[in-house]
Write a structure and sequence with these properties.
heterotrimer, A alpha+beta (175), B mainly alpha (302), C alpha/beta (229), B: mainly alpha, C: 229 residues, alpha/beta, five-stranded parallel sheet, 9 helices, 36% helix
């Protein structure tokens, strides 16, 4: 695996991380080299399966992190290829030509994070949220609790307890 | 005055047949449940379902044919009943049977299906249309062995009157068509499996298929009429097979017992065998059962 | 990506309409023009009617007994509770002996079981199924998700209180309730029907505007008629 990273380092400017599990590796590449990188991984290095395509919202840094989780069925190793893209300029190259099911992941990301993938099939159609007219709900500036309380008629009388305080009160009521 | 008495007996017979149909459905469901290690429904459950369906408050309609579909289906069932001699040797319980009643009854068996096709088609649900086209295609194949068997016994007894066919079978088990013409009986009993709508020929109505087939859109009173018809139809078709192949009945107890066991034959096969797809069932029915039917005719022609 | 709010109902209606449901004009075989508006042709937008119980007390009592002893459940599963329903029909719990049976079509069934959390997308389908059922119809709500949102109470996409959208007859608490609890719930529903208190369908018809406004508040792509039998 380290040899693979060494080979890729020269051509794609890839930064490898120390593996978390013996069969799971992560690396970071430049966003505009991503498609070339994973095409190479798929065609030449045996990472033929796209397991997952997901996003993380780093609101403090103003960035979205996209993780393309690839799997090599021959060696049974996972490789997560990460990229960071700007939060405001949320557009990324589509990879639906490499894996057909990537279009569904991209459709979901468009809906949940507002990351656009131009050219991806049906990317603008609603996936889970039919007729959603607010900001995409998985972005961290979206206040889920406030939205739910305004929209869904919360039933009064619901209490929330801090577990530590609650148990202390129960067990040692005198202190 | 005679016709009034006649009508009275016909209505009474219809009531008895209907109630026996409902009770028999309950008993059969109970037996099926026990066979699969359940307690199962109570025997009165078909009655309760019927009352409940007639007490639904709101009905919606999709047009005139939608109303007439269940009516045609019921008149198909009642039509078979009207021309079916129930008890041999009894003038009162032989309904309106006449010299050519067998042909009319075979016609009525298809009549209900066609009426249902028109009604279910007007319902507009795609599952109804799929269900009814499957049903008609399969029923055509089911009728073929039955028709061949009927032609065979018509040649054998040289009559198309059910009463005369029953009369020819009196005097012990050795005179039944079952013994004198086993090939025709075999073909007809295979066709009986299909006519009763149990596995392996229940692809049309099974709830696990396209939801419930032709009556997808029928509810409330419409469904109540269909259930009433089904209770009548199951018994009266068992009675037809009884008259043709199992020596008829000379009293009500005999009729009830024989119709139960004939009906149970289809349940028994249905419990054991899985379901045919419609293309499988048609091609199966057109092979061996049809050949048996043709053989039964050829033997009596020679 | 910030979609602009579109509050014009007429326009919203058009925006969410599937292409095959758009009103259009086709040319017939003889050259005549045929106007097709699938929403009006395929569905009925008539309001639900209140069907009063029968005047005669004995008849109504008998009918309620029949309705209670023959509960036909619509096979509509949502959330984790739909896993608890199939064991009901297995030999171990055997709900058939209480007159409970599953029906695959909403026309013939009288009980709708909302078996757990309801996403907005599912709620739309649940409402359509409920409205296609015939009066009298009953709703059983399983699990705490239908009572106050349960563990999804602060989610952006699941409802909190089912009784704001559909008239609920019986709540069965638990997360999830065991099949025994569901059987007990059926028993309570039977009692309620026999006492003549299960008039959810009439309540829905009487408070139709309130229910509909609640439903439309969260189903923003309302692209069907208000009441689609």
């Amino acid at each position: 695996m380290n040899q693979l990273f060494k080979r890729l380092e020269d051509s794609f400017g890839l930064t490898a991380e120390s593996p978390r599990k013996p069969d799971q590796y992560f690396c970071t590449v430049d966003a505009n080299k991503l498609v070339a990188c994973i095409t190479h991984l798929r065609d030449n290095e045996g990472f033929t399966i796209l397991t997952l395509l997901t996003a993380v919202d780093w609101i403090e840094d103003g960035k979205f992190q996209l993780t393309y989780l690839l799997n090599n069925p021959a060696t049974k190793t996972d490789l997560g290829v990460r990229i960071f893209i700007e939060r405001d300029n949320t557009s990324m190259q589509s990879i639906h030509h490499l894996w057909g099911h990537a279009a569904t992941f991209q459709r979901e990301l468009k809906e949940m994070f507002g990351i656009d993938f131009p050219g991806s099939p049906r990317v603008d159609e609603p996936f889970l949220l039919e007729g959603w007219d607010d900001i995409p709900p998985m972005r961290r500036e979206f206040d889920t609790k406030k939205y739910a309380e305004e929209t869904y008629f919360p039933r009064p009388g619901r209490e929330t307890n801090d577990p530590a305080q609650y148990m202390k009160q129960k067990l040692y009521p005198d202190e | 005055m005679e016709i009034v008495t006649k009508l009275g007996f016909v209505l009474l017979g219809l009531v008895i047949i209907l109630n026996w149909g409902l009770i028999m459905a309950g008993i059969i469901r109970k037996i099926i449940a026990r066979a699969s290690m359940r307690r199962g429904i109570s025997i009165t459950q078909p009655y309760i379902n019927l009352f409940k369906n007639y007490s639904i408050r709101s009905q919606i309609t999709h047009g005139v044919m939608f109303y007439l579909g269940p009516v045609f289906r019921l008149s198909g069932g009642v039509g078979i009943f009207l021309f079916m001699p129930l008890i041999f040797g009894s003038e009162n319980w032989s309904n309106f049977s006449f010299a050519g009643d067998l042909v009319l009854i075979v016609y009525f068996m298809f009549f209900g299906m066609l009426g249902m096709a028109l009604g279910a088609g007007e319902g507009g649900h795609p599952y109804s249309a799929i269900g009814i086209s499957r049903g008609l295609a399969q029923f055509t194949a089911i009728e073929l062995p039955l028709t061949l068997a009927i032609i065979s016994i018509a040649i054998q007894y040289k009559t198309l009157s059910i009463t005369e066919i029953v009369a020819a079978q009196q005097g012990g088990i050795q005179n039944w068509t079952l013994v004198t013409n086993p090939l025709a009986t075999l073909a007809a009993m295979i066709s009986f499996l299909g006519a009763m709508g149990h596995a392996p020929f229940n692809v049309v109505m099974a709830p696990q298929e396209n939801p419930i087939g032709p009556p997808t859109e029928y509810h409330g009173t419409f469904l109540g009429v269909l259930q009433t018809n089904r209770a009548i139809l199951h018994v009266i078709e068992a009675v037809l097979w009884m008259n043709l192949f199992f020596g008829g009945a000379t009293n009500w107890i005999e009729l009830i017992l024989k119709s139960f066991f004939i009906y149970f034959w289809s349940v028994f096969v249905g419990m054991v065998f899985p379901r045919f797809r419609v293309d499988q069932s048609i091609s199966w029915l057109l092979k061996l059962p049809t050949l048996i039917g043709i053989l039964a005719i050829v033997i009596f022609l020679l | 990506m910030n979609n602009t709010h579109d509050h014009n109902p007429e326009k919203t209606h058009q925006k969410f309409l599937a292409p095959e449901n758009m009103p259009r004009t086709v040319i017939g075989p003889d050259g005549e023009e045929i106007h097709i508006d699938p929403l009006n042709d395929y569905f009925c937008s008539e309001r639900p009617k209140v069907h009063e119980p029968a005047n005669n007390k004995i008849i109504e009592k008998f009918m309620n007994w029949a309705r209670a002893e023959s509960l036909w459940v619509l096979g509509f599963g949502t959330g984790c509770g739909s896993i608890e329903i199939p064991p009901l029909l297995s030999p171990r719990f055997d709900a058939f002996r209480y007159g409970v049976a599953m029906r695959p079509t909403p026309r013939q069934s009288s009980v709708l079981i909302i078996s757990g959390y309801l996403a907005v997308k599912t709620l739309k389908r649940a409402i359509r199924s409920y409205e296609q059922m015939q009066n009298p119809k009953f709703v059983i709500a399983l699990g705490s998700c239908t009572i106050n949102g349960g563990m999804y109470w602060d989610s952006y996409n699941t409802i909190n209180r089912l009784d704001h959208y559909l008239p609920v007859d019986i709540y069965i608490a638990g997360c999830m309730p065991r099949p025994e609890a569901i059987l007990a719930g059926f028993d309570q529903l039977k009692k309620r029907i026999k006492e003549g208190r299960a008039e959810g369908a009439n309540e829905y018809a009487r408070n139709f505007d309130w229910y509909k406004s609640n439903q439309k508040k969260i189903i923003k792509d309302w692209n069907m008629p208000d009441y689609n039998w």
